[in-house]
Amino acid sequence: MDVTFQFDWQAAFASIPHLLTGIPYTLLISFAGLAIGFLIGIVFGLLRISPSRWLRLPAVAYIEIFRGTPVLVQVLFIFYGLPQLLGGPINALVAGIAAIAVNSGAYISEIVRGGVQSIERGQREAGLSLGLSRRQTFRYIIWPQAFRRMIPPLGNQGIISIKDTSLFSVIGVGELVRQGQVYIATTFNALEVYLMVAALYLVITLSLSFALRLLERKGLVGQ
Known about the structure:
The chain is mainly alpha-helical. It contains ten helices and no strands. Belongs to the binding-protein-dependent transport system permease family. HisMQ subfamily.
């Protein structure tokens, strides 16, 4: 039997308005999760380099657990598992944001640790010799330099988190992939629609990559 397939560009472009309704959810989950994850990362990243073993161990445990398990498993645990412990349901959008937060927080912790430890010891000694306290030395000398060095890997983590939101269609979050699935269920144009989904993800991630490269060219990040 001779079966031929012809790509339907009209169907592909017709799906775009429907797919665009999922982008706000994709961006909300990724950026809200990253903002919370950044705060988590600062706390656990600094605990990771603490001289106290009792502060380091919980940080190491958190980082290894959430870096060592898939984000899909984490969101399923939050959405289906935690309600059994809490005695009530968790909103799918909240579950998605929480999953991005705890997952990205583990990776950002290592970014924070690496950024702070990359600052030469002489910088700390110079701050102390000027009469600054250890806290002031960290706040005014170490952290500003470390943060500039963290921006490129933080941007990479942002791109990863944006792509990770595609997994949350399994819990019914109306993000980009979920909207594509809904549209395919009524039109049966799977190839065309998923191609447009991929193209929209590419536009988002390339835009973020371009912004990061622009910052690097202006000398606002890195060394």
